[in-house]
Amino acid sequence: MTSHHPQHTGHELSRTRSHEGDRATRDKGGHQTGHNQPPSPVDVQKALKGMDYPCSKAELLACARDQHADRKVLDTLQHIPDIEYKSPASVSKELGKLM
């Protein structure tokens, strides 16, 4: 008695795996930041390009507005302490405390 089971070549499985991989890659790269996530430190520093230090919180906000910063960046800068910032690193330090 001969069994007539179709032989699996492995292509069916690899096709399924390749589609799963494509889906995972697309999902991963969909959004840079979530809706409730703060902006990255890089985004904030880009918004503060050309800032002269030391400076105040108000000067940081003015610079970010002049650079047409994203709303998330401006909102985040609103929450840092109103102190004198001596360098970009001091701004990043305060941002880190918020996250």
TrEMBL record:
InterPro entries: DUF2795
Matches recorded under Pfam families: DUF2795
Bias (Basic and acidic residues): 9-30
Location of the region described as Disordered in the Swiss-Prot/TrEMBL record: 1-47
Designated name of the protein: DUF2795 domain-containing protein
Natural source organism: Pandoraea oxalativorans
